[in-house]
Design a protein that fits this description.
- Strand 9 and strand 10 form a beta hairpin.
- The protein has one domain: PK beta-barrel domain-like (M1 Pyruvate Kinase, Domain 3).
- The chain is globular.
- 25% of the residues lie in helices and 28% in strands.
- The longest helix has 13 residues.
- The model has no long low-confidence stretch (mean pLDDT 91).
- The strands form three sheets. It has an eight-stranded mixed sheet with strand order 4-1-8-7-11-10-9-13. A three-stranded antiparallel sheet has the order 6-5-12, with no helix packed on it.
- It is built from six helices and 13 strands.
Length: 219
Amino acid sequence: MKVLSINISEPKKIIFNGKELITSIYKKPIEGSIEVTDVGLVGDRQADMKVHGGYDKAVYAYSYKHYQTWSKEMNQEYDEFGLVGENLTIDDFNEREIYIGDELMIGDCVFQISQPRIPCYKIGIKMNSRDFPKKFSQSGLLGSYMRVLETGKISKNDDVKHIRKESNSLSIYEVSEILFKDVGNIDKMKHALDLKYLTEEIKERFRERLMKLGDYSSL
C-alpha cells in the first residue's frame, strides 16, 4: 500500500437548501510532508468533533481503488483526491483485509485501526446526491478511522506497512456489515463488543441495538 495523497481542510461555510452549514469534508491535497499529532494532522480541523476527529478518530484513510467503483455507480468520473473527505488516500486500502486493532506504519508514525466511517448527510452534499449516504453505508467501502500510536511526520508516496495484525478481531468490512446490513446478527455484535480496540462509539450502537432485540446479556 502507498499514500497517494494527504488531504486537509479548515471548517468552511456552505449554503445548502438555503441554510448555512459548517463542514470540513472538502479536503484538499498538500505537497510534501505533514506533522501528525495524537489527534490528527497539523492544519486539519473538524467542524463537528462529535462525529469526526479526536483521539479515536484522528486520521481517516480511504482507498483510491474505490473511486472507480463510485465513478461507475454515480456515472461520473472521480479523480480528485479527498473524494469522501479522507485525510489519506491510499492506493488499495482493502476493508476486508484490515482488522480492528491492526497497526499500520506510515513514515515514522504508527496508526491503529479503530472503526469504519459512519457517513452523515454532508457526504451526500459533497457528492451532490441525496442517495449517496445510503449507497455508501450499504457498500461496506467505508475506509477507516485510525488512532495515532506514534506521532511524527508522513509524506505523499510513503509506503503503508501493515506491521501488526490483531488476532480474533473483525475486519473493517465485517463491522460495517453488522452496522448497516446484517443488523440482526446478535452473535457478531457480541463479538464486536469484545474487541479491545473498537471505539466506544460503535460499541454503544451495538449495545442499544441488542437491547432493542431483547438481548441484555452484554449490558
